[in-house]
């Protein structure tokens, strides 16, 4: 019984994304097109593969069994076809990366322009989110994360600065009104602007000096979701409304301009830079291989 490969791929995309709109984003097609493809497949098989409601789309028992067997098989087909890509003078295809907002803001801007210029036939899609995801299940080829959030079965390649710092700062007007903290614990008596992860966790502010680590959980009038919304906290700090604690590179333009002044700089904690990570259990697609080789050569 012959099956259309595109219909099979459509089913996998919808099942993995949990909906037709999400699957359409992964595949770069319309949701109605995916719906028709899945319906054709179900009619051909004579069994329902997806349970559809107004809020969700989930595989039936038959759909789960098919997805478990079909997903790896389609990955192998894609990898086999991609081998031909290696014979091209320049790789062609789509490269999807899942990255934290901090990497999208602080790491990729220096890398992507020369990479895209060197590989004009590669289309690059960036998905920026701070929650840890299964890059394969999310339809991505690779991701960027810090070492404490890497899975053990992943291959990790350093990308971007190898040492970063968290910085603490406030506007001169705020420090004139409230004074300058001399120790991290002094922050408990100050107005602090906090960030909360999507998971609901609000990490403590961590400082380190001569091996002494101090964690504080200060209070303040503003809590924003970590990621892109942190720009709001920075703007509020620049306006003189409180103290902000964030990547040094994120705050650097405001520190250099004098809009923010460094606080407790001798306590700023250093940490290792991010890694590009990808599964080591299958062939690497040509666009991803080109990206890996590009960052390994230090072409940025």
Please specify the SSE layout and strand pairing.
Elements: H1 5-17, H2 20-27, H3 31-45, E1 50-52, E2 57-59, H4 61-83, E3 93-99, H5 101-106, H6 108-118, E4 122-128, E5 142-145, E6 154-158, E7 163-170, H7 172-178, E8 192-196, E9 205-209, E10 212-216, E11 222-225, H8 230-238, E12 243-247, H9 248-257, E13 261-262, E14 270-272, E15 275-279, H10 286-296
Parallel strand pairs: 3-4, 3-5, 8-11, 8-12
Antiparallel strand pairs: 1-2, 5-15, 6-15, 7-12, 7-13, 7-14, 9-10
Question: Mind describing the biggest β-sheet?
Answer: 6 strands, mixed
Q: Give the oligomeric state of the chains in this entry, treating copies of one chain as homo and distinct chains as hetero.
A: single chain
Question: Strand percentage, roughly?
Answer: 15-25%
CATH topology of the largest domain, anyone? D-Maltodextrin-Binding Protein, domain 2
Q: How many angstroms does the end-to-end distance come to?
A: 50 Å
CATH class of the largest domain: Alpha Beta
Mean pLDDT: 86
| CATH arch. level architecture of the largest domain | 3-Layer(aba) Sandwich
């Amino acid at each position: 019984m012959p099956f259309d490969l595109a219909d099979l791929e459509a089913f996998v995309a919808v099942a993995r994304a949990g909906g037709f709109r999400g699957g359409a984003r992964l595949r770069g097609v319309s949701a109605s097109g995916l719906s028709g493809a899945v319906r054709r497949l179900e009619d051909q098989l004579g069994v329902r593969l997806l349970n559809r409601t107004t809020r969700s789309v989930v595989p039936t028992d038959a759909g789960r069994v098919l997805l478990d067997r079909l997903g790896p098989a389609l990955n192998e087909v894609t990898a086999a076809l991609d081998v031909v890509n290696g014979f091209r003078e320049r790789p062609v295809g789509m490269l999807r990366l899942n990255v934290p907002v901090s990497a999208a803001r602080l790491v990729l801007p220096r890398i992507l322009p020369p990479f895209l210029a060197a590989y004009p036939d590669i289309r690059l899609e960036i998905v920026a989110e701070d929650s840890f995801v299964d890059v394969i299940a999310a339809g991505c080829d690779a991701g960027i994360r810090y070492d404490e959030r890497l899975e053990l079965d992943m291959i990790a390649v350093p990308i971007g600065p190898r040492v970063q710092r968290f910085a603490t700062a406030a506007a001169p007007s705020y420090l004139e009104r409230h004074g300058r903290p001399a120790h991290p614990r002094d922050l408990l008596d100050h107005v602090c602007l906090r960030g909360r992860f999507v998971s609901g966790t609000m990490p403590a502010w961590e400082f380190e000096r001569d091996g002494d680590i101090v964690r504080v959980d200060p209070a303040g009038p503003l809590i924003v979701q970590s990621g892109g919304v942190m720009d709001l906290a920075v703007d509020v700090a620049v306006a003189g409304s409180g103290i902000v604690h964030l990547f040094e590179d994120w705050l650097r333009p405001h520190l250099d301009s004098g809009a923010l002044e460094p606080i407790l700089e001798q306590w700023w904690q250093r940490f290792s830079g991010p890694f590009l990570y990808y599964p080591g259990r299958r062939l690497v697609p040509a666009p991803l291989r080109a990206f890996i080789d590009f960052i390994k050569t230090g072409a940025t």
